[in-house]
């Protein structure tokens, strides 16, 4: 991301031929943590929607040269393709592409979300080994981004734009368009301050209905809690991000 911005600012020749030393606000330790947290968070979210099944099922061994599986691996140094060769109660025996034999326990803590799934011999899926435990993985359907910013200086300390750069080079932290959500509220409050309101001004937090015009339903905004709070100070309104 830094390289792209400098290329736009300085041009390719200056960037690569002038011996520049570039310093950024990125904290490499925090960046490593953020990358890991984003991946773990997306995996946990995906687990809530259940197992979508094996990548494919093949009677040919994935270790054989004539059965090359053309699948993009998000983390080739961590995730290994495995194929089931034997199934028994609470565990499966699998082989990887180097013909290494592995035992995966389906009732372990990390695999317990799969305890009711029916696996078949020949099923191929990703496995990550952590502390000698085989953890079955699937690529999440939902992607995401995460940014850490020092609120006192505005410095970007860490930035992660997606689940895997190998699967997608689209940077969701800098390139994605998103709904502003409650982030627009301060601009509304600033407008109120300019009109003479102050933080202690009382505003009525009560049901509110707007006629949107012929053929359209009535618009009835609500607070996140679905409750009404009566007269409240403007300061409380922005602190609690109240909609009404």
What is the number of strand segments? 10
Order of helices and strands: HHHEEEEEEEEHEEH
Kindly report the average pLDDT value: 94
Q: Write down the Rg.
A: 26 Å
The general outline is: extended
Return residue spans where pLDDT drops below 50 for at least 5 consecutive residues.
none
Strand residue percentage: 15-25%
Main sheet overview: 6 strands, antiparallel
Helix content: 10-25%
SS class: alpha+beta
Give the number of helices.
5
What separation lies between the terminal Cα atoms?
39 Å
Describe what this molecule looks like in 3D.
With 244 residues, the protein is of the alpha+beta class. It is 21% helix and 22% strand. The chain is built from five helices and ten strands, in the order H-H-H-E-E-E-E-E-E-E-E-H-E-E-H. The protein has helices at 2-10, 12-17, 28-47, 185-194, 234-239; strands at residues 56-57, 79-88, 91-96, 101-105, 123-130, 133-137, 146-149, 156-160, 202-205, 230-233. The strands form three sheets. Strands 1, 2, 3, 4, 5 and 6 form a six-stranded antiparallel beta sheet that branches. The chain has a two-stranded antiparallel sheet with strand order 7-8. Strands 9-10 form a two-stranded antiparallel ribbon. A hairpin with a 2-residue loop joins strand 2 and strand 3 (91-96). It starts with a helix and ends in a 5-residue tail after the last helix.
Notable traits:
extended; two-stranded antiparallel sheet; alpha+beta; 21% helix; 244 residues
Brief sketch in words of this structure:
The protein is α+β, with helices and mostly antiparallel strands. Helices cover 21% and strands 22% of the residues. A hairpin with a 6-residue loop joins strand 7 (146-149) and strand 8.
